Amino acid sequence: MKDQEGALAVKLARRAIDAETRNLDIDRFDVPDSFREKSGAFVTLRTFPGDELRGCIGYPEPVFPLAEAILRAAQGACHDPRFPPLRPEELDHVVVEVSILTPPEEVKVEHRLDLPGTIVIGRDGLIIERGMYRGLLLPQVPVEWGWDATTFLEQACLKAGLTPDMWLDRRTRIFTFKAEVFQEESPYGQIVRRRTQ
């Protein structure tokens, strides 16, 4: 994805967040053809300048056109169940980040202990699936926390509501995906591509 498309993705998310928080309809605006192709997307809100998570919602599977996935994720991030709903007075104190995802691919290994060696920190996001349990962590998360691949697998299990060692169980399915990440440097500020590797 080109940088200007990434900037547009963040602007689209920001418009949706502003409208959702103020209970307004979002303005219609044209998007390039690439935004009409189905893609997974996540929208993350962080406090500024504190850089603490304020909301993160998204769609790992390419079920919606990219523009719609961003809009839905942005609206959802305002109501992340882990936090109180985003208030209008917070809009000047949060930065918006958009992650555009590749379709998840299942990781197959002969021996479960080989799994950490297949994961590249900063490149791969993780989805852990076991029956009705499912957890997802974006590629930027282990970089932020300084995790190695084993810790990343353990934390993804915890996110799924499983014990941290469940990645060793053959019945647990593990998927990786990649993401292009774009974010505001400050609220309503310059939009840059975020390097995670």
Keywords:
5 helices, single chain, Dna Ligase, domain 1, Glycoprotein, Type 4 Pilin, five-stranded antiparallel sheet, globular, alpha+beta
Structure report:
The chain is of the alpha+beta class. Helix 1 packs across helix 2.
CATH homologous superfamily descriptor of the largest domain:
Hypothetical protein ph0010, domain 1
Beta-strand percentage?
25-35%
Supply the helix-strand structural class: alpha+beta
Biggest β-sheet strands, sense, barrel: 5 strands, antiparallel
Helix content: 25-40%
- What is the N-to-C order of secondary-structure elements (H for helix, E for strand)? HEEHEEHEEHHEEE
Specify the CATH class of the largest domain: Alpha Beta
Distance between the termini: 17 Å
**DSSP helix count?**
5
Tell the overall outline: globular
CATH topology of the largest domain: Glycoprotein, Type 4 Pilin
> At CATH's second level, what is the architecture of the largest domain?
2-Layer Sandwich
Please tell me the overall pLDDT. 94
Unreliable stretches, pLDDT < 50, 5 or more residues? none
C-alpha Rg (nearest Å): 17 Å
Kindly give the count of domains: 2
Reconstruct the topology from this structure.
Elements: H1 3-22, E1 40-47, E2 53-59, H2 66-77, E3 94-101, E4 105-106, H3 115-118, E5 125-130, E6 133-137, H4 140-145, H5 149-159, E7 173-177, E8 179-184, E9 191-194
Antiparallel strand pairs: 1-2, 1-3, 3-8, 4-7, 5-6, 5-7, 8-9
